[in-house]
Structure formats: C-alpha cells, structure tokens
C-alpha cells in the first residue's frame, strides 16, 4: 500500500511538473504557476516545484504604481476617494502576479519627476520613472463625471375608509357593536434618487510609455421610497377599491405603505456605494488585462 500511494503521487505530479516546466521555459508564467501549485498541493517536496513556482512569480510579477487621480466632476474629494479604494482593491486582488508599489515611495518619486501634476509621459521619462519606482506600469484614473439626480416628492391624494363601531341594543336587550366605515383622505408619497459615476482608467507601460489599457467605466445606484401618510388611526384605515367601496383585502398593503421608509438614502452613502461598485469593475478589468499579458 505504501508503494501504491507513492506511485499515485508520482502519476499525479510528474506529468503536471513536466508540463509546468514547458510553460516555464516558454515564459508562460501563469500557466506554469498553476501547475506547480497543483503539484505542491499534492506533494510539497516534489522535485524543484517549490523553487520553480517562486521563480514564476518573480519572472511574471506585474507591478503597478498609481498616479494621483484626476477629478472632472463637481464633487470635491472624489479623486482621492477613488484612488484609495482602487489601491485597496488591487492590494486585495487574488492574482498572485499583481503587486502595487508602496504608496509613500512612489509619491516622492512622482513628485520629483513632476508627474503628480502633469501625468504626462514620453518613452524616455517612462523608462526612467519605471526604474525609480520598480514598477512596470502606471495607473491613471479620472473621474469623468458624477451625476446625482433626486426627484421631487410626488404626493397623490387618495380616498380611504376608517372603520368605527356603533353600539346598539338588540331586541333581547343586549348591547352589541356594528362595524361601519366613513370616508377619510390619506396621501401616497414617492420619490427617487439616482447616482451615476463615469470613470476612465488607463494603464501606461513604463517600458514604452504607451497605453496598454484604457477603459471608460460607468456604474449607477438607485434608491426610491413610496409610503402613505394618514393622520388617523393606522389600525382602522382601509383603501378604496376600483368602484369606490371599502377594499378590505388591501388593508395589509396600505399598512405596509404607512410603515414604509420615508427618507431616501443619503447622497454621500449612495456615492460611496457607486464608487465601490466601480472599484470592483476597475480591478476586474485590470485582472482581465493581466491574464492576457501574463499567460
């Protein structure tokens, strides 16, 4: 049984190890890394798999430095918010070949190169900055616009019915109560808010100074409220039906409207949520490009 287990490991690991070396020699670092990882997961001491996997990471490492982002919107601070979110998202990427250059070091170097203000590169300055940063690419970001559209509160007067009890004495002399309905007004109110942000992300090669990726991305979030207002007893109010009578079956729906949320989400909260959505899209686009650049 011991020999069977040994040969089972070899049968699993050996073909993967050989194929990984083929990818390694062909500069296909991601494919080699995947296969070496499969081998190591089965047998951590199999031949040189550990060392070769580390070499694939070293050879295929894709380093990104973030330029200060630009803000083309009228919302103050959105550029720095995006930069912080994008940096954090890239640092949390599951792609083993993606690395973000240390923020403090790159800020100093970019300032010295006056790129923090201009963001303009030619082939010569790109190579120089790349060597100083230890990065292969620069990431430029621009908030193209941020639109917040909030509707007015729309109010519609409705007719409903309020139930009440009327006492009467039966022929047997007993006191009983009859349920009756009187018409009452109530109001239905609605409003909505939409936030839409458009962002341009560009990756610039620090080997050539040319763009390797440029994408315009948009995301939006939407919120709405619909509720009812009534000044009487909420427990006894009913909506009317299509012919103007009491709609007893609609009572639960009206109760839900009377107890519904009455305020829209704050603009700042919705803007932050939209930034988070776009940040995820930005990371996804970069990871997709990385898979193409590092097969």
Summary keywords:
295 residues, alpha/beta, 8-stranded mixed β-sheet, 9 helices, 8 strands
Structure description:
The protein is of the alpha/beta class. Strands 1, 2, 3, 4, 5, 6, 7 and 8 form an eight-stranded mixed sheet that branches. 42% of the residues lie in helices and 32% in strands. The mean pLDDT is 91.
Itemize the secondary structure elements and their pairings.
Blueprint: H1 2-25, H2 29-42, H3 49-60, E1 62-66, E2 70-71, H4 78-91, E3 98-100, H5 103-112, H6 115-118, H7 123-133, E4 137-150, E5 154-169, E6 175-205, E7 211-229, E8 237-239, H8 251-258, H9 267-293
Parallel strand pairs: 1-3, 1-4, 2-4
Antiparallel strand pairs: 4-6, 5-6, 5-8, 6-7
Helix pairs in contact: 1-2, 2-3, 4-9
Give me a quick take on this structure:
By secondary structure, the chain is of the alpha/beta class. It has helices at 2-25, 29-42, 49-60, 78-91, 103-112, 115-118, 123-133, 251-258, 267-293, and strands at 62-66, 70-71, 98-100, 137-150, 154-169, 175-205, 211-229, 237-239.
Kindly state the percentage of residues in helix. 40-55%
Radius of gyration: 32 Å
Using the alpha-carbon principal axes, give the shape.
Answer: elongated
Q: How many distinct beta strands?
A: 8
The assigned structural class equals alpha/beta
Strand content: 25-35%
Distance between the termini: 39 Å
Biggest β-sheet description: 8 strands, mixed
Order of helices and strands: HHHEEHEHHHEEEEEHH
Output the number of helix runs.
9
Mean pLDDT: 91
Give unreliable regions as ranges.
Answer: none
């Amino acid at each position: 049984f011991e020999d069977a287990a040994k040969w089972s490991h070899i049968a699993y690991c050996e073909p993967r190890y050989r194929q990984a070396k083929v990818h390694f020699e062909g500069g296909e670092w991601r494919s080699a890394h995947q296969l070496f990882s499969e081998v190591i997961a089965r047998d951590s001491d199999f031949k040189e798999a550990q060392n070769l996997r580390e070499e694939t990471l070293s050879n295929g490492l894709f380093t990104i430095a973030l330029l200060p982002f630009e803000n083309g919107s009228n919302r103050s601070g959105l550029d720095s918010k995006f930069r912080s979110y994008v940096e954090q998202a890239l640092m949390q990427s599951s792609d083993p070949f993606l690395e973000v250059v240390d923020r403090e070091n790159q800020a100093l170097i970019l300032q010295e190169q006056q790129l923090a203000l201009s963001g303009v590169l030619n082939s010569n300055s790109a190579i120089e900055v790349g060597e100083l940063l230890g990065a292969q690419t620069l990431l430029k970001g621009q908030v193209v616009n941020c639109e917040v559209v909030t509707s007015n509160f729309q109010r519609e007067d409705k007719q409903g019915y309020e139930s009440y009890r009327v006492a009467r004495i039966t022929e047997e002399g007993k006191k009983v109560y009859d349920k009756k309905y009187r018409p009452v007004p109530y109001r239905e109110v609605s409003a909505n808010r939409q936030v839409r942000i458009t962002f341009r992300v560009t990756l610039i090669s620090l080997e050539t100074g040319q763009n390797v990726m440029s994408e315009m991305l948009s995301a939006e979030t939407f919120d709405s409220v619909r509720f009812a207002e009534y000044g009487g007893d909420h427990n006894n109010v009913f909506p009317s039906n299509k012919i103007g009578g009491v709609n007893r079956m609609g009572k639960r729906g009206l109760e839900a409207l009377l107890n519904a949320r009455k305020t829209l989400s704050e603009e700042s909260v919705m803007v932050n949520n939209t930034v988070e959505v776009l940040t995820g899209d930005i990371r996804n686009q970069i990871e997709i490009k990385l898979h193409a650049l590092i097969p």
